[in-house]
Structure formats: C-alpha cells, structure tokens
Known about the structure:
alpha/beta, Aspartate Aminotransferase, domain 1
Amino acid sequence: xxxxxxxxxxxxxxxxxxxxxxxxxxxxxxxxxxxxxxxxxxxxxxxxxxxxxxxxxxxxxxxxxxxxxxxxxxxxxxxxxxxxxxxxxxxxxxxxxxxxxxxxxxxxxxxxxxxxxxxxxxxxxxxxxxxxxxxxxxxxxxxxxxxxxxxxxxxxxxxxxxxxxxxxxxxxxxxxxxxxxxxxxxxxxxxxxxxxxxxxxxxxxxxxxxxxxxxxxxxxxxxxxxxxxxxxxxxxxxxxxxxxxxxxxxxxxxxxxxxxxxxxxxxxxxxxxxxxxxxxxxxxxxxxxxxxxxxxxxxxxxxxxxxxxxxxxxxxxxxxxxxxxxxxxxxxxxxxxxxxxxxxxxxxxxxxxxxxxxxxxxxxxxxxxxxxxxxxxxxxxxxxxxxxxxxxxxxxxxxx
Length: 400
C-alpha cells in the first residue's frame, strides 16, 4: 500500500474544485449541466490587459524573474495598496505569486509550526484549513452565527485567543457567505487583536466586488497597530477576470515576506513573467471594467436572492454584501427522503441537485457549515434563470 506524507495524506481535495470538475466531466459526456459551483468570473480578461501581455511577449519578457516578482510588478502593487486600501509598503515587503493561494501557503508555512493554533472564522474558504494543517499548525474553527450575518463577534474572538494562538485569517468580502465587515466591525475586531500578539492575515480577493456603494474599509487601515504583524493577500483573478493567468501577491513585514520568498524559491519559483507584465497594466491602468463587472454582479445578486427566496426548503436571511456567492440555509430539506434515506447534509443535497436537476453547486460541509450550500452567480442571468427553474421544480418535489 502506498505510504504518503502524513500531512498530505490527511488533506482532502478542494470541495469547490471537485464540484466543478464533476460538472465538467458530465458536460463532456453530453449532459446539459448548468455550473453554479466555481468561483470564476465568466467575463473575459479586459483587452488592455491582454494587450500588455502581447507587448511583453514581443519585447522578449519570457525569462525568469526574481522569485519575489519584478520591480514593475511590486511598484504596481504599491500603487494599488495605497490607492485602494490606504496602505503603504516598500518593495521588500511585497512578493508576487502564482495566485493568492501560493502566497498564503508560503506565508502560513513560514510563520506557523506544530503546537501553534490559527483561528479561522467559519463559514470559511475550504483551502484555509488545509493550508494551516500543511504547516503543522492546528486550525481553530470559530463559528460565526447566521443571525450575526456570518460576521465574527469580537467577544467570541477574545475568548478564542488562547496561549497557543499565533494567527487568524480574516476574509472580507467572504467566500462563501458574501459577508462584508464594515468600519465599526473591523474597529471592534482590531481592538481585540491589537491587545494580542497574533499574526493577522487579511484575504482581500473579492474587495472590488461589493455592493455598498463605497470602497470597503481595510482592517489594517482601520486599526494601523496591526500593520506590524499583518499580512495582506490578494489576487487579480476575481477583480480583473484573470483566473487562468495565475497571478497574486502578499504584502507584510519584510522578515515574513523574505521567509515566504525563500520557501517559494524551493517549491515554485517566480510566477509567470508575462502574467506579471499584464498585472502591471491591470493594477495601474483605468479601472472602468472593474466597476462595470461589479455592477453586473450586483444585478445577478439581486436576481439570485429573489429566486432563492422562492425555493422550497431554502432560507436566506442575509443578503450578500459582496463576492459572487449566496450561502442559503437548507436545513429544512436535510431530513427529507431521497431514494429511501434522509439527505443528511449540504454535500449530499448538492449531489442530489446535480444528479436530478443537472445544476452544479457546492455543499457547505467543507466550509464548516453542513446545513448550507454555496451557489455562485458568476454566470449570465440567462443561465441563472435556467438553473433556478430546475431548482424550483426539484426542491418543491423534495419538500413535499
């Protein structure tokens, strides 16, 4: 029997990628599956960004770059962080990566070790737990109540911080819930964290997909004391529809970034030189497409909320304030029978929906919320309506 590294052997495949892969297999076999699982914008990368990549190719920028990224890329990140978040960083405090996930993995792997705990407010993106486990540290899951809008309560945070706690991951807007922390909520959390010596990691992947009409606040801007032990993670995948380009970054204290760069030098090296050149244009050029995409996502959000609230057995008390997901409560359906036995949890319900309605969604189990499912609206309104027509029929049958 094959013997694997014990940490790797204990890691589950990404639930979101697995759901999308199964839907892709069914579509390849000729099944008309409507994909509402993947966290991938359906928009094309803006032309100005593609043109920047073509220029980089024509200019022969096809070689290795420094592991931490090119000077131009880091300068573009500096501009973006100052413009969008009110944060200032030096080039030595910034690293490029092949998407934000490698940056997070390398920083987490550099900061934490056996015996350490890292707080993860749940529901949470499925990869946070796995990355902490691979570092040898222990994820400390802190549930956030649906009645609180899935936002972390400051007193619950205070109680969760123990002698072994060395880190926390905050994700706003949230994948999977779409919850967004406002200035007052961040200030309350910031005061608690400022009293500790916990490393604070802020995943900002969906920062520009928010629906409040104003720039969402950043934790480190609201509570500057956290800057000295805070890490910013971000990606160009969502904001600029650049998922396949695989480009993201981290920013934080230079000693932490230097350690993460050393780790990156041994596991992947630099991200694509062409993607970095394209990212410079994305971050520093006109941001018109960003606002247009966010406006369309808002229209889709409104449509999905209206359609979900008509589904039998689905409850959605919180309207998502950002990202492009809804995270309805489906507990009313979990005791219903399907082929002779109770459905049981969100993962099983997602399987039933794929099998019976040919709509791909993701169960909430690996997000830390088995009574929920995640539905992505990163697809056209026509596809959304087709999917919900099917869901409406199936859920009414299940709820009988």
